[in-house]
Every structure is written in C-alpha cells, then in structure tokens.
C-alpha cells in the first residue's frame, strides 16, 4: 500500500488516498478513476511534495536563512582557505610590503594585533577584517616557511 497526497485541479482541494502500489495509482489516474472527495472531479494529480529535501534543481522548498547563511559562510571560508595565502601573524608586514610595492600583490589572510590594524588603517593599507563566520581555521604553523 502506498499513500499519495493528491490535489484536485477542479477545486484546489488537497487530499490523501491509498493505492495498492504506485503502478495502481498510475493506472487509476490514467483511467481517471481517482475522484476528488470534495467535488467529485477527476482532474486529480499527485501533489508535488517538497519538504526540507532539496529538489534535483538544487532549490530548497523553503529556504532557511540561517542555513543559507551557514552555507554561504562555509563557501567563503573555503574560498579564502583555497585561494588566499595564509601569512599568520605576518599579515601586517605582508600587507604593507604589497601596498608599498615591495612584493607582488596576492590575496593573503592572517592575523593582526589591534595595534597593527590601527597602523595599517592609518597608513591607508587596505585590510578588511573577516567576520568570524567567514574566517577559515588557520592552517598549521608548520606550513609556513618563514617561522622565526
Ligand atoms: Zn475537487
């Protein structure tokens, strides 16, 4: 037995009905043997059910803003982690070197002290603090070649 949520196109009534199998439903629907209990109409079709599950098109039935935000933040984190060079505590020096043309521009991220941040701002060196949800986990320090 299988239960389907059906919708009547005649009166917009939604109802549920049991069928022996999905084949049985298909057969009965084809022969227009499935009737709307409200108006008796035979123009009945399966309701498109889309609970929290994503459809094949990737669209969620009801987007959950918190979930979307979390997904977005995760993408941003991955993007930074994959495309930006982690410079750790050298961020202020690296950003400054790029700003003054001592090194080539490249996307970097790392940490600054509040003092360094203030100094960068004063010098006009562009540096944007990453809000916590968008900041990836710092990679292990051993990845750095220029440890003191
Ligand atoms: Zn109806």
Q: Whole-Å distance between the termini?
A: 71 Å
Number of strand segments: 5
Q: Note the run of SSEs as H and E.
A: EEHEHEHEH
Q: Quickly count the helices.
A: 4
Can you tell me the number of structural domains? 2
Helix content: 25-40%
Please describe the structure with a list of short key phrases separated by commas or semicolons.
single chain, 148 residues, alpha+beta, two-stranded parallel ribbon, binds zinc ion
Structure in words:
By secondary structure, this protein is an alpha+beta fold. The protein has helices at 22-30, 65-83, 91-99, 114-123; strands spanning 2-8, 14-19, 44-46, 85-88, 108-110. The chain is built from 4 helices and 5 strands. The chain has a 3-stranded antiparallel beta sheet with strand order 2-1-3. A hairpin with a 5-residue loop joins strand 1 (2-8) and strand 2. The longest helix is centred in the middle third of the chain and has 19 residues, at 65-83. 8% of the residues are buried. The model has no long low-confidence stretch (mean pLDDT 82). It binds zinc ion (ZN). Zinc ion (ZN) binds next to loops.
In a few lines, what is going on in this structure?
By secondary structure, the chain is an alpha+beta fold. It has helices spanning 22-30, 65-83, 91-99, 114-123; strands at 2-8, 14-19, 44-46, 85-88, 108-110.
